[in-house]
Amino acid sequence: MPGYHEGFVRLLYGIILAQFIVIAILLGGFSSEYLSNVYFRIWVDNNFPQLGMLLTGQVDALLIGMALGGTILLIQRMKNEANIDEGTTATLGRRSSLTRSSELLPNHATRTTIVEAPRETPEQVLGELEKHDFQNSSHYCGDR
Q1: Nearest-CA neighbor of 52 among 65, 61, 62, 43?
Q2: Is residue 20 within 8 Å of 68, Cβ to Cβ?
Q3: Confidence of residue 36 (pLDDT cuts 50, 70, 90)
Q4: Cα separation, 119 vs 125, whole angstroms
Q5: Which tens digit of pLDDT belongs to each residue from 42-80?
Q6: How far is CA 63 from the centre of its chain?
Q7: Which end of the chain is more exposed for a tag (fewer CB within 10 A), N or C?
Q8: What is the DSSP string of 3-38?
């Protein structure tokens, strides 16, 4: 979020995550009550039939999985941003070798070329194998 202080953004992420966790816990409680209380199930089915699908327990597991995945991704993002910030400050804090000396570094790079080995066709490989098999079989026949 450009333009906002980093601490404020982290606080907002924390608040959103806390709200999501509270919603998942409340949905889990309602789901447990729906599955164990027959009277509550009848009342929900009569008054809010679509809510019965939400309270069967599957949606709650999906929400908890999404919250865990989002939390892990958020933590990784914050760590990567911290590592990038540390690397940037470490690079900006020291002077590079080019600014210390006015010499330009010589270019010692050598030109490389990619050389491909000749490839044999499957027919050539089979021919070589048959030739070796024929030599080995004639060698064994002569020893008998």
Answers
A1: 43
A2: no
A3: very high
A4: 10
A5: 999 999 888 887 788 777 778 778 878 888 888 888 788
A6: 19
A7: C
A8: TS-HHHHHHHHHHHHHHHHHHHHHHHHHHHHHHH-H
CB 63 within 8 A of CB 27: yes
pLDDT at 98 over 60: no
Please state, in angstroms and as integers, the Cα–Cα distance from residue 46 to each residue in 52, 55, 112, following that order.
10, 14, 77
What is the C-alpha to C-alpha distance for residues 48 and 29, in angstroms, rounded to an integer?
17
Which burial class, exposed, middle or buried, applies to 21 when counting CB atoms under 10 A from its CB (0-12, 13-18, 19+)? middle
144/142 Cα distance (integer angstroms): 6
CB distance 55 to 30 below 8 Å: yes
Question: So what's the pLDDT on residue 112?
Answer: 63
pLDDT bracket for residue 139 (50, 70, 90)? low
Residue appearing with tokens 């070329």 = 113
